[in-house]
Design goal:
Layout (H helix, E strand, L loop, with lengths): L6 E5 L2 E6 L5 E5 L5 E3 L2 E3 L5 H12 L2 E9 L10 H9 L4 E7 L7 E4 L10 H11 L4 E3 L10 H7 L3 E7 L9 H19 L4
Parallel strand pairs: 3-6, 3-7, 7-10, 8-9
Antiparallel strand pairs: 1-2, 2-6, 4-5, 8-10
């Protein structure tokens, strides 16, 4: 992830990497680095930024994700600068916010946010592409993308956004689950573009 198309940034709240693409799609990884939520550390979600940038490069889309050190939580803190920057990278279009969850018996969970009407038809496409790869997918539970999340904050700005939670194995590039996720997200993104879901 040292290519010239990815830039490194630092601010008081933490550090991040970003990529500016040419199509109105953004892949986000706000928890790639260990966060601080309500004064307490919260585990990093390694691999989420790598996947975001890989997908962004494939489609010449934009990407953003945290790297150490991170002194806050973009998916929890109100009016977080991360969200502001994400809106600058993607004034309109579609955003997929990637997260890691513990294994609950299924590998994927889609959060439709507080404005699910914005993503009607899109979340169904994501679900079907994941399921078609044999990845059992829950919608809205246990993570629905509540009002404080990056997803819902982007939706409040009129951006079509979804949250996707995946188990740790899905971010392991050596695993079969990663290959399935990678293919499912590639097919899903192509569908978003080709079916004019933006």
């Amino acid at each position: 992830m040292t290519s010239q198309d990815v830039t490194l940034h630092h601010a008081e709240w933490g550090s991040w990497k970003e990529r500016l693409g040419t199509i109105p799609i953004l892949f986000s990884a706000p928890h790639n680095a260990e966060q601080v939520r309500d004064g307490l550390p919260k585990a990093a979600e390694p691999g989420s930024l790598d996947l975001a940038i890989e997908l962004a490069r494939l489609f010449d889309a934009s990407a953003i994700g945290t790297i150490p050190p991170l002194h806050s939580d973009p998916n929890w803190d109100a009016d977080h600068p991360y969200v502001i920057r994400a809106k600058e990278l993607l004034p309109h279009g579609f955003a997929l916010d990637l997260h890691m969850m513990r294994d609950r018996g299924f590998p994927a969970c889609i959060g439709t946010g507080t404005h699910p009407e914005l993503v009607e038809g899109i979340w169904q496409s994501l679900e079907s592409n994941l399921e078609n790869m044999g990845l059992e997918t829950s919608v809205g539970w246990p993570f629905g993308a509540g009002p404080q999340t990056v997803t819902s904050n982007l939706q409040s700005a009129g951006i079509k956004a979804l949250q996707l939670e995946l188990t740790p194995t899905c971010f392991d590039v050596k695993s079969e689950a990663y290959k399935k996720v990678r293919e499912a997200l590639e097919k899903f993104t192509r569908a978003v573009i080709n079916d004019s879901l933006l």
